[in-house]
Amino acid sequence: MAVAPLLIGMPEMRQSSLVVVANRLPIDDSQALDGACEWRRSPGGLVSALHPLLRHTPATWVGWAGGTGPAPALPDVDGVRMHTVALTGDDLRDHYEGFANATLWPIYHDAVEQPEHHRRWWDAYQRVNQRFAEATAEVAEAGAVVWVQDYHLQLVPGLLRALRPDLRIGFFLHVPFPPPELFMQLPRRAELLRGMLGADLIGFQRAQAAHNFSQLVTKVLELPATDRRIAVDDRMVRIGAFPVSIDTTEMSALAGRPEVADRARRLRHDLGSPDHAILSVDRMDYTKGIEQRLKAYSELLAHGHVKVRDTVLVQVAVPSRERVGQYQILRDRVEREVGRINGEFGRVGEPAIHYLTQPFDRAELAALYRVADVMAVTPLRDGMNLVAKEYVAARVDDAGALLLSEFAGAAAELPQAYLVNPHDLEGLKQGLLAALRADPADVRARMRAMREHLREHDIRAWARSYLSTLDQSGSLLTRLSNG
Ligand code: ADP
Ligand code: F6P
Asked: Which of 143, 297, 447, 465 is least enclosed, having the fewest CB within 10 Å?
């Protein structure tokens, strides 16, 4: 991978006609200082989605580099400029860990954990959003397209429009947008809606989310709104569903490589050559339904429906947001439960669950996907879930059963998966057994249909659909496809 030399001192102020704004940069400062600048693709869906699009596109990415203190000057990565926004320790605690991940995140995910409200967190959210808006205003060329990402930055569209009315501003929410009765709990609900309405186009994962947004705008701001358009002052804001996807071709090509197939064979052997391998790959997040899945598996073991030597579960759960209390509690509970299940059902050299908390490179992930006879993706609520799509793309052999939660955005696009309600323990157990015992011909037919869908609905189709709606001149699209 070509790496530009590390810039020393103050960042050079260069302007771009395409600016992506996201809480995190796709690299972090520790990597940059090592001189090892690669896209930090994982764990997390946002960078996974944007990476294949932006590589080699002349764009600037405005974001946080992961530390606290002064903003480091970072080199370009694959031709994309990295423009760092500095966060202090207080910003990190009150904006990222606080308002973004302990207020908005639980509210947006059905309040499966209790959202917390603190006035100090709101102050930090405003302050950090203002800083992102100012940084973006500096690096955007006249008339540039700016694409703001996700719930950390909902005020940026409005703040940026006030600074730079010449820009074309898009906002995309990667996570669910909740029903009005949940959103209405937010003390600063009007400000959050107004912030988003600074955009020309607001994209959601699902049509239901756009509908929720339009209902809220009508109710809270008393603006005329449909599920497609909202009139704000003298502007028309468009809203709609743009389900995010993956680079299907890239994942299929990777999974089809002989060395990945060899690695998959070796992994299967190392797992004890079981009849059935089940895999789950999640960030350690309470929305992902890890505890419910472990409980279902434990009951299937206890009642003899699955046996340790015949069946193994591989649970990859990379730690996330480790300073947020609810995430610490979850990790402790998951690790205690994995220990209990292995203690009770495992044998020497034959654990019931292979539990891994490491980040893996793409080839290792692809090999894991190829080993999995059943891929269990059972979040309680998820905006999309790219892991489900990656699994399908990796099954170049048309084998493998996808067990998928009805509450993942991906379920709307992949109805051929074995769909389950993860809140229903008996249903989850039955779904897992159905996927394990499915007729191979049925599994293949379902997998083929899902692969067909993803061949067409890949990340480029997502970008085309979103950006052609945002940038009606079409010039941006031409540059992305030439990139
Ligand atoms: P979220 O954005 O909530 O984390 P997604 O399923 O949409 O969930 O995206 C997760 C992304 O992170 C996927 O691209 C997946 O491959 C990647 N990922 C998850 N766990 C790991 C891991 N242990 N190692 C490498 N990549 C991971
Ligand atoms: O999908 C929601 C999201 O916040 C993404 O923005 C991000 O890629 C992922 O979850 C990981 O979150 P964090 O940046 O908090 O590690």
From this structure: 143
